[in-house]
Specification:
The chain has 113 residues and is mainly alpha-helical. It has a single domain, classed as Protein-Tyrosine Phosphatase, Chain A (Alpha-Beta Complex). Helix content is 65%, strand content 0%. The chain contains four helices and no strands. Helix 1 packs across helix 2 and helix 2 crosses helix 3. It starts with 14 loop residues before the first helix and ends with a helix. 22% of the residues are buried.
Amino acid sequence: LDIADSPTENIIKHFKKSKEFIDDCLTQGGKVLVHGNGGLSRSAALVIAYIMEKYSLACREAVTYVRNRRFCISLNDGFLNQLAEYEHIYRAQTLSNTSEAATQSQNMLKRKR
């Protein structure tokens, strides 16, 4: 991925594609190495976003989880702010998907009666 290590870079737009790629690899029994130039900011942000969404963690929890495994991560302020923003985005999407699934189930039950 072509991502600048800049606080003004929009990294959120890469989270979905990165998660899909990681999930696809793991589903096929593969392993994934996420790396960049130094492995301190961009790659850490992508991994944190993945951990947040995959395990329904808050931004702080995911940062702590990753930092405990790679102590040298150093997210730029822009990426950290976007990760905090992404927490609200993915939680809203999850809530919307859950609500939509519940509505579909209710409609299906009504048809069976």
